[in-house]
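Let's do one together. I've listed all components of the complex below, 228 residues spread over two lines.
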Amino acid sequence: KQEVTQIPAALSVPEGENLVLNCSFTDSAIYNLQWFRQDPGKGLTSLLLIQSSQREQTSGRLNASLDKSSGRSTLYIAASQPGDSATYLCAVNVGGGSNYKLTFGKGTLLTVNP
Amino acid sequence: EAQVTQNPRYLITVTGKKLTVTCSQNMNHEYMSWYRQDPGLGLRQIYYSMNVEVTDKGDVPEGYKVSRKEKRNFPLILESPSPNQTSLYFCASRARLAGVNEQFFGPGTRLTVL
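Okay, and this is what the predicted structure of the assembly comes out as:
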């Protein structure tokens, strides 16, 4: 059974700092990996999607890497801003067959202090 | 605008009173699914649908029903809600095409069962 772990569970940083969020998964046979952002009481916003054949994806100040063989992904946020404060969720897709189910980690709660 | 919509966004009901949460997507996606999010447990899949008239159980299907009579709609039905179904519910969709892998989520429905 696929399990996804995110470390740390919570992180507080001063504005402007670069930071890394970690995600690990137990079964390396994934189809892709997706990073989401969730604001309190709100829905999920997709940030980056990495296919199993890719090593990284970039969008603005965000960079996500994937090492499938070791079961790890990182989300790098450059020059953090208070508006980046949210919960960040990592999810792996083990589908490609009949169910494109996402297995989620429990998230990292990020607080960026002005 | 490409989106997944859910209604209602907030619902307070009583034990045993049947309810339906609607989900609709305008992206012509074949695949749709429902998740619930609970503190400490993360997001877990309830049901999914690969296409019209094709549905199957996810990880936590007990107490729920779904139907897929049209491609755009995937309602979640609680025939006899119980307090342990108090949760935040998300609908998601994606295309069933090679190379088009991103899953899109609705804004969520916060359900309280008294």
